[in-house]
Amino acid sequence: MRGFRGEISVCIVHEFELQASFQFLVMAWEMKKDKIVLKIDCRDLVIVRTVNQAGHALSKQAACCLHKDRDSDPHCCLGEQPPSVDGGESGCTRYGALKEIDKGTLPIAKKIEVHGGEGVTAHRDLAVERQKSLREEGENRDLSIAASMYVYIYIYIYIYISVFPDLNWSFSELCSSDSRFTQQELPACKPILTPKWVISTFLLVSVIFIPIGVVSLFASRDVVEIVDRYETDCIPVDSRNNRVGFIQSSQDKTCNRTLRVPKHMRQPIYVYYQLDNFYQNHRRYVRSRSDQQLRSPGSNRDTSACSPEDTTPDGTPIVPCGLIAWSLFNDTYGFTRNNQQLIINKRDIAWSSDRDRKFGDNVFPSNFQNGTLQGGARLNTSIPLSEQEDLIVWMRTAALPTFRKLYGKIEVDLRAGETIDVTLQNNYNTYSFNGKKKLVLSTTTWLGGKNDFVGIAYLTVGGLCFFLAIVFTLIYLIKPRYFSLGCSFYSCTSYK
Amino acid sequence: MDSNSQIESCDQVPDFLRDSSSRRSISSYQSKTSGGHSIREVNFSELGSKHVRHGSTGADSEAFSASYKEIKEDDARLIYINDPEKTNDNFEFAGNSIRTSKYSIMTFLPRNLYEQFHRVAYIYFLVIAILNQLPQLAVFGRGASIMPLAFVLLVTAIKDAYEDYRRHRSDKIENNRLAWVLVNEQFQQIRWKDIRVGEIIKVSSNETLPCDMVLLCTSDTTGIAYVQTTNLDGESNLKTRYAKQETQMKNPEKEKIDGLIKCEKPNRNIYGFQANMDVDGKRISLGPSNIIIRGCDLKNTDWAIGVAVYAGKETKAMLNNSGAPSKRSRLETRMNREIIFLSIFLVALCVIVSVFHGLWLRRHKDELDLMQFYRKKDYSEPEVENYNYYGWGMEIFFVFLMSIIVFQIMIPISLYISMELVRVGQAFFMIRDNRMYDEASKSRFQCRALNINEDLGQIKYVFSDKTGTLTENKMEFKCASIRGIDYSSGEDNTEDGQIGYSAQDGGQVLRPKMQVKVDSELLQLSKRKHTAEGMHVHDFFVALAACNTIVPLTVETSDPALKLIDYQGESPDEQALVYAAAAYGFVLIERTSGHIVIDIQGERQRFNVLGLHEFDSDRKRMSVILGCPDDTVKVFAKGADTSMFSVINRSLNLNVVSATEGHLHAYSSMGLRTLVIGMRELSSSEFEQWQSSYESASTALMGRAALLRRVASNIEHHLSLLGASGIEDKLQQGVPEAIESLRKAGIKVWVLTGDKQETAISIGYSSKLLTSKMTQIVINKKSKDSCRKSLEDALVLCKKITSGSGETHVVSQVALIIDGTSLVYVLDTELEGQLFELASKCSVVLCCRVAPLQKAGIVALIKNRTDDMTLAIGDGANDVSMIQMADVGIGLSGQEGRQAVMASDFAMGQFRFLVPLLLVHGHWNYQRMSYMILYNFYRNAVFVLVLFWYVLFTSFTLTTAITDWSSVMYSVLYTSVPTIIIGILDKDLSRTSLLKHPQLYGAGQRQESYNGKLFWLTMLDTVWQSVVAFFFPLLAYWGSNIDGSSLGDLWTLAVAIMVNIHLAMDVIRWYSITHAAIWGSIIATFICVMAIDVLPFLPGYWAFFNIANTELFWVCLLGITVGALVPRFVVKVFVQYCIPNDIQIAREAEKRGNSRESQDAQIEMNPIFDPPRQ
C-alpha cells in the first residue's frame, strides 16, 4: 500500500487483531449504549473504527495511532498488512467460498481497524475537481459547506454499502449484540389516530386558520389601491392603428392622467408600474445578465451570458449587459395634487442588499443603449450602478408575467376624493406584444397589497376543518368502534 | 510389470483392498498388511506385488453424478509426469499464475466505465448530462448537471480501482508464494506462478496446494494424505486422499518417475475427477480421491508429492470462483411497472410543454423580433441576424429535450440508492437479531443476497427439506432388531450404571466420544459370544462397526490415561451406528485403507478390507468384503430396507424376515431411519470370481461406474438377514411451533424429503404438519397411467371433502403424500397441471423419496403456475437446486456441509428462525420498502409538478424559480434522509404482536402495501399537493412585486416541508432518530436555502431574507402545509376508523394492550387460531 498517493496506516495494537476489510469511507461507527454514532471527520478524512470483544468502541486508542508519530508509538506500525491475515485474506478475495466460512467460524477476535489512505486522496481529488469545474462555471462557485458535506456523506454511505458484503462480518461486530438498537427495541412513541386526537387536530386547525383568515381578509380590504391602465389611452387617437410605430418614433409622448382617491390613503403610498404579459421570467431573458459584471469593474468583459446585448459591434463590453438591463422600463410619472407637486421618493426602492453588495458602487454604465435598437431607459454614466435604483429594481426579475415594480413612494397622506394629476412619459414599448401598462398607487399592510386570496383560503381550510371535526364527532357518536368488543381481526378484515 | 498379467499369473488372490466412502467416493487400496492373518496375504507379500488400484467408482454426491463421463480421446489432456516441456509442447496449458484482477492500468478506464454504464440509471444520468451540455439546452449550470453523475462514477471507479488494486496485490502475493518443485532431480523452491503442468511438487504439512495435482506419494506409507477443503466448500472435516501404490513406493528424488496421465479437460466440478495414469507400463485409473486441488490445505501428513495437472486459471478452485447470480425482488419488479407509468407521465409533461411552446411561438411569431424579453434579432452585430432562434420546429424539439432535463427527477434515480441503503440497514438488523442467533453453532443470520429482503414478507409457499432442516441430523441409535428380535432400549433403568464401553490400550483407556444408551439385554447377549444369539449379535455389531467409511481419531484429554475416540465421517447415520457398536463393546479402533481393527469385548481383532462397494443412490446400499480373523471372507451389506430385502435370501429364515419387516414398519412409524444389515460368507471360488471382475471393472475406461455397480450387484445377493437398526433423527427445537405459526400466517409448508414414506409421514405428525383430522391422499404409483388415475381420484375426493365441509362447518383438510417415483411420471408431463390443482387444494403436501432435481421441479411447478412467492429451505447439497430455483433460498448451516449455504440467499442456524425471519423481519421489510417506494414516487413527482406548473407561466420556456442547486439537492438532501431512516427503523407492529398473530403476515401476501391502486391514489394525492404548493403562493402573490427568486425559495421550502410532514404523518414509531431526521431535514432545507441566497453572484441573492421578513411568507407556508395534507389526513383517518385492515387493528390492540391487558381481547383473539380457510 505504500507508494500509493497519500498514505495508509494499518495499525495493530497488542491484543487487537487487524480485521482486513475494505473500508473506503471515512466514517466511524461508535457504539454507544443504545445508539450508533456516526463520525465523519472532514479535515483529515480518516476513519477510526475500533471494536473490542464486547463490542465496545475503543476509538481513543485508534485515534492515537493516527495522530501520534507512528514511529514513536510502539503500538502502531505502518506498512503491509501483517502476515497473519495473509492466508485468510487472500483466500477471501480469491475464493468466494471462504468469506462465508470465515464469517461463520472465526473466533470473535478483539479487533481494531484503522482505515484511510485512498479515501483521503479520493476525497481531495474530488474536491479539486469540483473546485475546478466550479471555477470554469463561474457562476456556481462555493456551494455551502453544509450542503456539500451532506452530499459527501450520502455518497460515502452509498459506497460503504456497495462494498457491504465484504464488510458483513466486521459490520456486524459494530454493535454489542444485545443492545436495544440492534434488537430494534428502542423506546418509541407510537401515536395512534384516536377519535379524540383527530377531532382535536381538526379543531386546532380551524381555531388557528379562521382567525388568520379573517385578519387577512380585513388587512386586504384595508388596502387602498388606485389602478390606472394607460397604455391605450396614452396613444394619440390618430396613432392608434400604428402603436408600435408611434412608440418607436421620437414624438412627444407626454400623457396626462387624472386619478381619484377613493378612500383615505395613509402614507407611505407606494407607486408601482404594472406590466401584463411581459415575461420577465422567460428563460432567454432571465439568463441574459452578468452578475459578475454588475458587481465589480474588473469583470466588465464577463458578458458571455448577455448576448445579444453583450458588446458593441466593435467588441467593447456593454455595462450593464444583457437583455434585462437593456429593456429597462422608461415610463416616468410626475404627480401633482391641487397643482402642487407631490414628491416621489425614489430612494430606497430597491433592496438594500442589492444596493450594497450586488451592484458595485464603482461600476459605471458604459456603451449602454448605444445600439440600433433601443430597449428602454438610458442610464446616467456618471452614477454608479449601486445608485441606479430603477435598474436594481428592474433587474430583480419578476416571478410572473403580470408583475408590479416599485417606482417610488409618496410620503404624504392622500385624502378621499382628492384628484391627482399624473404627467407621464409613455416611452416603453409594450405594444409590440400587446402588453398592458398600469400605474398603481397602493397603501400596504402587514400582508402586502390588495389580495383576498389568503384570507379566503384560510377561511376555507379552517371552515373545512371545523366541518370535518363535526363530521368525525358525529361518526364517533353514531358508530363508535371498540376494538375489543365490536371487531376482531376476523370480522373486520379482509380475511374472508 | 503388467498388472493384468500379474493377476492372471497369480493364482493366489492378491490382497485386494478397497475402501470407499458412501458419499464422496473415496476409494483406496493398499497393500501393506501387518502380520499374516491369512496365507493369501503371505503369498501376496512374497510376490512383492505392488499393484494397487485406486479407482473411483460410482457417483459421489448425487448432485454431481451427472458430470461423470468417461474420458474421450479428444477431451483428454495429456500430462507427462515430470516432463513439463513435453507436456506443454503440444498443448499450451495455462501457467500457474492467476489473475483475479479485472483491469490493468491501460484497460481500467474504458472497462470500468463500460461496466458502470451497465446500470440503466447511469445511462439515464448520462443522457441528461449530455443533453445539458448542448448550449441550446443548458438548463442547469453545466457543472451542476454533470456533477452528480461524475461524482458517482468517480467514486465507484475509485472503489473499483481500490478493489482491483487489492486483487492485484493478493494475486501478486499468491503468485509469488513458494513451493517445492522437482527440478533436476531435487526439490527446489520456485514461485507458484512458475509452476507448470507436469511438474512434480512437494507440499508439506499445513501448506496450501499451489495447483491441482495428482498425488504420487505421501509421507504415509499407505499413501494417505489428509486435506482440508475449508477454502473450497467450507467443510472443515479432514478428507482423505490417496496416492496410488504404484507411485507411492517411488521417491522422485531418487528414482525418476515416468508416466503419462490422461485426464479430463479442466472443469469446475470439485468433487469429480477422472483420469488414467500409465506408469511403468501399467494403466491405473485415477479418481477424485487421487487429486488434491488448489486451495486445500494439507493436514496431518508430513508431506505429499504430486504432479500438477491443472494450473492457474484452469484449477477447479479458480473455475469455481464466480459469484452467485443476483435475484431481483418482486417489489422491485412491480415497481418497474410504475416507473414506466412515471416515464410516460414525464414524456407527457414534456410533450405538453413543447407543444404549448410551439403554439406560443406561432402566435407571437411576428412580434418576436422586438419583444424586450425575447429579442429574436441580434442588432448589435453589423449584420442583423437571428439570435439563438433555430426555427419553429427546432425550438419545439429543444424545449422538449430541455423539459426532460428539468423534469428528470420524475424518474426517481435516488430511489435505487435509497433502496440499497435501506436494505443494508434491514440486513443489519436481521443479522444482529438475537432471536435468530444459533447458540449451538454460534452462528448468526447471514444475508447473502441484499436485493430481496422485502420478498421475505410475501412468501406463500415454503418448501422444506426434512433431514437437517426439520430434524437436527444428529443421529442417535435407538433400537435394533437382530434376527427377528426387537431390542428397543426404551426406558432403560440400567443406563445409570452403564457408562459405555471403554477399550484398553496399554495403560490407556480409549473411550468413544459419544455415549449411547444401551439396552441391557442386548448388552448381555453381546457378551455371550458362543451362543447362537451371541453370534448373531456379534455379526450384527461387526457389520455396524465395519460396514462404513468412518475414520476413528483418538483425541487426547486432560486425563493422560484417557483418550477419546472421535469417529469422523461424512454420514451421520454411520457415525451413530459406529458409536452404537462401540457402546456394545465393538469399538472401531483403527481404520486404514487395508484393514480395520475392532476391539471386540476387549479383544483386538483385525479385519482385512478386501473390497468395498460404496453407496450409490441406485443400489441404495453399500457393502464391504472383509477377510475375518478366522480366515473366512464375508460380505457385509447395509442399506435401505427396500433395496436390502431384494437381495436377502428369504428362504433362509422366513420368520426372521417377516418379523424384521414388522419391526422396520414399527421403527419407521416412530419416525426412525432404518437400515437393514445383511451378511454372507463367500466361498473362495466366489471370491475369486468377484475379484477378477472387480479388478477389470475398476480399471475399465468406459462405463466404469456402471461396471462396478454390476459387480456389486453380483456379490450382493442371497444375503442372510442380520437385522435392522433404527436411528432417531431428532426434530429440531421449536419445529412444530414454527410450522404451526407459518401455517397460521397463510403460508403453505411443503416437505420434500429423500426419506421414505413412513418416515416422512411420522415426521409429519411429530412436527404437527399432519394432524389426525386430516384426510391423507397417498400417491405412490409406478406408471404414468396409474398416476393419472390416482390424481383424478384424489381430485374428486378432494372436491367432495371440501364441498362437504361447507355443511358441517368442519374444515377438513387434505394432506397429499406423493413419492418420487410418481413424481417422475407427473413432473414435466401433462399431469403437472392436475398435480398443481390437487396440491393447491391440499393444505399439506409431503413429497418423499424425491431426488434433488425433483425438488427443484416441484418448486418450479408452483413458481411457474402461480404468482405466489416461494421459499426453499434446506441444509444439504441435495437442496441446492431447490434453493436456487425458489424465489427466496434459505440455507441452514447444519451438519451436512455448507453447499446449501453457499447457494442460498439467506443462511441461518435453525428452521424455527424462519418464523421471526418471515413474520417479523419479512413483514417489516415489506412494509417499510413498499411505503418507501410509494413515498419516493410521490416525493419526486410533487417536485416535478411544481416545476411544471411554473413552466406554464413562463411562456413554456422551462425557467425554474427554484434554483438549480435546490433542484439538485431536493432529492439528495432536503428529503432523502428521513425516508431512509424510516425505511430502516419504522415498525408498523411490534415483534410480539406479529408473532402472536401470524395472520398479520397476510398483508404482504395480498400485496396490501404496494399495489397499483395505492400507486394511483398516491399520484392523485401528489397532484393535489403540488397544486396547493404551487398555486397557493401564486395566487397570494399574484400581481405583487414579488421576484422570481423569492417565490422560488418559498416553493422550495413549501415543498420540502410538505413532503417531510407528509412522511411524519405516516411514521408509526417515533424514535429520537426519526425526530432528528424529519425535523433536521426541514431545518437543513432552511439552512441550504439561506446558504444559497448569501452567494452574491447568484441572482437570488438575499431573496430568502427579504421574503422571510414578510408575514405573508409564513402564512403561505402554513397554509400550504395544512391545505395540501388535509385530504390525505382525512382519507387516512377515515380508512383507519371505518375500514381498518389487520395491521391497524393490531396496532390499536397493541396500544391498548400496553395500558391494560384486556381479557376480552384475548377471548376475541381466539377464533383466529383456526387456520384460515382458503
TrEMBL record, chain A:
Entry's Gene Ontology cellular component terms: endoplasmic reticulum; Golgi apparatus; plasma membrane
Organism: Buddleja alternifolia
Location(s) in or outside the cell: Membrane
Chief location of this protein within or outside the cell: membrane
A Pfam family: CDC50
Family statement drawn from the similarity comment of this UniProt entry: Belongs to the CDC50/LEM3 family.
Cytoplasm keyword on record: no
PANTHER family given in the database record: CDC50, ISOFORM A, CELL CYCLE CONTROL PROTEIN 50
Transmembrane segments: 143-161, 197-219, 456-478
Protein's UniProt keywords contain Cell membrane: no
Region (Disordered): 288-314
Topology with respect to the bilayer: Multi-pass membrane protein
Bias type Polar residues, positions: 291-314
Annotated protein name in UniProt: ALA-interacting subunit
Keywords: Membrane, Transmembrane, Transmembrane helix
UniProtKB/TrEMBL annotation, chain B:
Family: Belongs to the cation transport ATPase (P-type) (TC 3.A.3) family. Type IV subfamily.
Gene Ontology cellular component annotations, sorted alphabetically: plasma membrane
Enzyme class: translocase
Family annotation (InterPro entries): ATPase_P-typ_cyto_dom_N, ATPase_P-typ_P_site, ATPase_P-typ_TM_dom_sf, ATPase_P-typ_transduc_dom_A_sf, ATPase_P-type_domA, HAD-like_sf, HAD_sf, P-type_ATPase_IV
Active-site residues (renumbered): 465 (4-aspartylphosphate intermediate)
Compositionally skewed regions (Low complexity) per UniProt: 23-34
Cofactor(s) this protein requires: Mg(2+)
Biological processes, Gene Ontology terms: phospholipid translocation
Annotated P-type ATPase C-terminal domain residues: 901-1140
Keywords: ATP-binding, Magnesium, Membrane, Metal-binding, Nucleotide-binding, Translocase, Transmembrane, Transmembrane helix
Bias-annotated ranges (Basic and acidic residues): 1150-1159
Principal subcellular localisation of the protein: membrane
Domain P-type ATPase N-terminal: 79-145
Catalytic reaction(s) noted: ATP + H2O + phospholipidSide 1 = ADP + phosphate + phospholipidSide 2
Compartmental location: Endomembrane system; Membrane
Region span, Disordered: 1-37, 1150-1174
Membrane protein topology class: Multi-pass membrane protein
GO MF term list: ATP binding; ATP hydrolysis activity; ATPase-coupled intramembrane lipid transporter activity; magnesium ion binding
Keyword Metal-binding attached: yes
Pfam annotation, one family: PhoLip_ATPase_N
Spans through the membrane: 120-138, 144-162, 339-361, 396-417, 937-962, 968-985, 1014-1038, 1050-1071, 1078-1100, 1112-1131
Protein name in the entry: Phospholipid-transporting ATPase
Entry annotated with the keyword Cytoplasm: no
Binding site for Mg(2+): 465, 467, 875, 879
The enzyme's E.C. designation: 7.6.2.1
Sites where the protein binds ATP: 465-467, 574, 615, 638, 673, 753-755, 849, 855, 878-879
